[in-house]
Each structure stands twice: as structure tokens, then as C-alpha cells.
Write a structure and sequence with these properties.
Order of helices and strands: EEEEEEEEEEE
Shape: globular
Number of helices: 0
Distance between the termini: 37 Å
Structural class: mainly beta
Length: 119
């Protein structure tokens, strides 16, 4: 599975960005997809995940009410709509695909797209 993120950039506090992840390859062993982020000097943290087996969605408390994850099965893309962005949202954002039976770390990851929130 190959994952390619796009849509990052520089935005002012309170602004919006939409990240997109294009997936290619066999998705047969994939049961969930998600967005993670890592700020300089911090550990990688999960932002939002969506199950491919059922309509389940989970969003981290830190972005609840501001970020929305969605998937277009026809286009095989995963999007993250980010509204009311804050400086603490500044990070490299990664798209990930979870392989059934293993941890997220052992799944597939994109190269990341940088999001910077600053005035």
C-alpha cells in the first residue's frame, strides 16, 4: 500500500486546511486508516481514525469538534478537514493504514505533509 499526503501549508490561527491522502495498492489486509501528527520534540500522536469494516470513527480529544475525518471509497482517498486551527496543531501530519492483527507502527505510512499554524 502506498500513501501520499497533500494539502499542508501555512495558515493563520482560526483558519482551515484540508489534508488528503491518496492510497494505492491492495487494501485487502487493511482494516482502518487514520491521521497522526508529530510536532518537533514530541512523540507521534494519533489525530483521527476511521474503520474500514464498519462506520466507526474516533477523534482525539485535542481536535474534537474542529477536525473531521472522512473517506471516499470510490477515489480511495482519506481526508482530514481541519477548522479553527491553533498554533499547537503545528506538526507533520501522516496518513496511515492499519494492517489487521498488528500495531499501527507495522502498517503503512505516508511521507507526511507539514501544517504550520502561525500569525
Amino acid at each position: 500500500v502506498q500513501l501520499v499526503e497533500s494539502g499542508g501549508g501555512l495558515v493563520q490561527p482560526g483558519g482551515s486546511l484540508r489534508l488528503s491522502c491518496a492510497a494505492s495498492g491492495s487494501m485487502n489486509d487493511i482494516n482502518a486508516m487514520g491521521w497522526w501528527r508529530q510536532a518537533p520534540g514530541s512523540q507521534r500522536e494519533w489525530v483521527a481514525v476511521i474503520s474500514l469494516d464498519d462506520p466507526g470513527i474516533a477523534v482525539a480529544d485535542s481536535v474534537e469538534g474542529r477536525f473531521t475525518i472522512s473517506r471516499d471509497t470510490a477515489k480511495n482517498t482519506l481526508d482530514l478537514q481541519m477548522n479553527d486551527l491553533k498554533p499547537e496543531d503545528t506538526a507533520m501530519y501522516y496518513c496511515a493504514a492499519h494492517k489487521t492483527g498488528v500495531s499501527w507502527d507495522l502498517g503503512f505510512w505516508g511521507q507526511g505533509t507539514q501544517v504550520t499554524v502561525s500569525s
